[in-house]
Design brief:
Helix content: 25-40%
Structural class: alpha/beta
Oligomer: single chain
Number of strands: 16
Bound molecules: nicotinamide-adenine-dinucleotide
Strand content: 15-25%
Distance between the termini: 36 Å
Number of helices: 10
Order of helices and strands: EHEHHEHEHEHEHEEEEEEEEEHHHE
Strand order of the largest sheet: 15-14-13-12-6-11-10-7-16
């Protein structure tokens, strides 16, 4: 691996769509002293040129041309999930460090190929989502580790919307989100699967009910408003996960996830952790100023909810942009030798869970999970207040 110390890391973005424009391109201003947006590429040439003009970025005539550029240190893959494996493999084979948006690949076997390729070449390979690096989830882990609610017995998560077809902020054609290989689990539920596995480690088995509830959609906003979309991915999944540690005390610890594109409004907390001494609740995992609430029963008084103070200091400009924390982490790993936290092994495990959902539902059985990842992770104590 090249010695990067003291140099500005040269990073390229592949895919210039919604998330590039909303999160990654603006994020570069926050790391300008240590990294440079060295170029962009998109298979849609008009979109690439328009993005390049807005952000003063170098463009390439092809993916091969970009990957052949020896000035480039690292790639961030922001293409739709169906392209992830192909683009990821090409980037690693070209010797580039890599951060891929979720999902890591289309199959567990593909993810393994990528992991082996990166390992053989000594490359940093990270996978989104970066939710675990955000301030709210950092705080949540710390409250759990302190035993604030005692022994955790179950976690309930819900991340369900109508999907990008009904989302005012969505500026691209949302069709691919509803097509086979995507759907709410790889798009939304994945944040909760990473959060649960960050907290409790690899799951042992899972079971799900999963299917299509609303087979025809209409894009409500954006460039294809009015377009009819036929849904071919499961759009409604309820899942149970078993986090009990067979080598430990074997105490039951269940995860429960609701992930769908069939919910207009879900006013309850998105995440709740139940322990033998209390409850922690996170109302909105996307809220930049989001807080965590704690319920603690009292022998003397009434049980009460309190809002916990933030434990983790965060730059005002990045607290709300946790998606870009992945790029900052790529920089820290490649340039400063930080220990990778967004590991491809965890992303592969989460992918195995996602892919098992339709199978479990159709076969009517629980599925034993085969993949695993190193746990607990070396989170460190970055930017803490105390
Ligand atoms: N949009 C969001 O809010 C959001 C949030 C978090 C993560 N993500 C992830 O980011 C990725 C991109 O999502 P998006 O919403 O920006 O999609 P998008 O459709 O807006 O953009 C994807 C871009 O990739 C380009 N592309 C397709 N195939 C390509 C190829 N082979 N080579 C180069 N470019 C190619 C397309 O032309 C398009 O411009 C997905 O993996 C998604 O899961 C999106």
């Amino acid at each position: 691996m090249r010695d990067m110390s003291g140099k500005r890391l040269q990073i390229v973005l592949i895919g210039c769509g919604n998330i590039a424009e909303r999160r990654y391109l603006p994020g570069f201003a926050t790391i300008a002293d240590r990294a440079k947006l060295a170029g962009i590429y998109d298979a849609d040439t008009a979109r690439m040129q328009a993005t390049a003009a807005r952000h003063d970025a170098r463009t390439y005539p092809s993916l091969a041309a970009l990957l052949a550029d020896t000035r480039i240190d690292a790639v961030i893959n922001l293409t739709p999930p169906a392209m992830h494996h192909e683009v990821n493999l090409a980037a690693l084979r070209a010797g580039k460090h890599l951060l891929t948006e979720k999902t890591i690949a289309g199959t567990v076997e593909q993810a393994t190929t990528l992991i082996e390729e990166a390992r053989a070449r000594g490359l940093v390979f990270l996978s989104a989502p970066a939710i675990g690096l955000g301030a709210q989830m950092t705080d949540l882990r710390r409250w759990v580790e302190r035993g604030t609610i005692g022994q955790v017995v179950s976690v309930r998560a819900q991340l369900s919307t109508m999907g990008p077809a009904a989302w005012t902020e969505y500026t691209s054609d949302p069709t691919w989100f509803y097509q086979r290989g995507v759907g709410p689990l790889p798009d939304l539920g994945i944040y909760m699967l990473h959060t649960m596995t960050d907290l409790f480690g690899p799951a042992r088995r899972m079971t799900a009910f999963s299917g299509i509830s609303i087979p025809e959609r209409v894009a409500l906003y954006g460039p294809v408003a009015g377009k009819e979309i036929t849904v071919t991915a499961d759009d409604n999944t309820q899942m149970l996960l078993d986090f009990a540690d067979p080598a430990g005390e074997g105490r039951a610890l269940w995860g429960n996830l609701d992930s769908s594109f069939c919910v207009w409004q879900a006013p309850g907390p998105q995440l709740e952790l139940y322990g033998d001494r209390g409850v922690l609740a996170v109302d909105n995992i996307y809220d930049p100023k989001g807080t965590i609430r704690l319920w603690r029963g009292s022998r003397e008084g009434e049980p009460r909810w309190e809002t916990l103070p933030p434990l983790t200091a965060w730059d005002a400009d990045t607290r709300g942009l946790y998606i870009f924390e992945g790029a900052r982490h790529l920089l820290a790993c490649v340039r400063d030798g930080a220990s990778p936290l967004l590991t491809p092994e965890q992303a592969r495990h989460v992918l195995e869970i996602i892919l098992a959902a339709p199978r479990s539902s159709r076969e009517g059985r629980a599925i034993e999970l085969e993949t695993t990842f190193a746990y607990p992770k070396p989170w460190g104590t970055r930017m803490e207040l105390e």
